[in-house]
Amino acid sequence: MIIRIKKIKNLKIKTKYRAGLTIQKSEGLLLLFSIYCFLCFQITELKVANIKFNELISLLVLPYFLIKAKSINRYLLYFLTYFAILLLLTFIKNLTQEFYLDYKSLSILRWPYFISLSRFIEYLSCFTFALITYKSYNYFKAKGYTKKYITEKLLWVNAYFSLILIVFYILYYLGILSYHNATIIYDAAPYLPEPILRLRAYFIEGGPLGLFYAFLFCITSIVNKRAYFLKSVFILVIILAKSKAGIIAVVGWLFYIIYLKFRSKSITKYIIFLIIVPVFLATAVKVADNYVETYQQTAVLLKDRADDNNFVMGRTAAFYIVPNMIYYNPVFGIGLGNYSLVRNDPRYLDILPPVNDWDLPGLGGLITLLVENGIIGLSLFLAIVFLIHRKYAKYSLLADRSIVLFLLICCLGVQLYFLYIWFLIGFAITSPDDLSQNLHVKA
């Protein structure tokens, strides 16, 4: 009898020990997933052999997930097929398209066809990241974790990094460290006597960084609306980045949440809607005023700045060039990655001079999709997103709001090959999870 009791006690001890190891393993894997997401989110400009670091690590883990995956969500396969169709249509388009840049003096990766293939690989890394997010969330949910707990883990990893950025910004601002040749900060107006410092971290500039942190702010409000510290940290980074797009995204999201709160009341929701739309539009116009003013003065300024590449290239030039590209290529667009190769076409330039350097429009989002792939490309993209929303939103508030956030950020100009927005797709298609769930691990 005594021996039997001892065996039972030993069995209980072993069971608890194994359970403890399982929890430790799960927590370790969750931390690893959070760090992986952090690297894919934040490190956008670091390159290894001309391949972006975050895209490289995303692609490197693809074979493992394809081998281990017993099945792949069909909506992710829709996106993969969609990207392949865009590449095929681009190759067909290139057969009859004339290029207006001496591309042979550039890297082979920027030649026709090769630049389109590079863009396809970027989209393939987006598919991979969405797949990993989808599989990882389902794995951890099977281990007893909620989507709230999983998401908060990766948000905190980003928050710790944000605090480091804020500390360094203060050191640069106070002159304790020199901002000259700094990586994470830059002077937005070097022609002025006093520097205007903008935080950019490992993004190309402050605007995209701020839009990314608006994404973090909105995700935080989705999974835990009372996470005031996290949201405050993310808002502070947006302010230090001086990001107009980030501000618009946060304001737009808050107005959307207010509308949701009152939409059940038939009269009140229309009143709220009539208040929200003008305020949101006024805010958007206010923060974008500099772009409008520059556009209006372009014809005058061009006389003195025709040789200034900072003026005749980039976003300002795109305001003239992009509408013409859409007008002459409405159905299939100009092709994946072809903007710089065809932007010197006299039909597109309007009042602008041709340039010999590689030019990027900087508009991003749905506009880039419309320019490169036309109405066909944009319509197919929105159709897939709509199908995902119709399938999952009725079962999950998390899915509903993540798809809305995805479209909001796309409308505000994020480049579609930025991995972080594809987190929202993987997040939306995971099995439904009640917003009100607060348990970290099942009892």
From TrEMBL:
Coiled coil: none
GO cellular component, one term: membrane
Domain named O-antigen ligase-related: residues: 233-382
Keyword Magnesium listed: no
Any GO MF annotation of the entry: ligase activity
Membrane topology: Multi-pass membrane protein
Name listed for the protein in its UniProt record: O-antigen ligase family protein
Species: Adhaeribacter swui
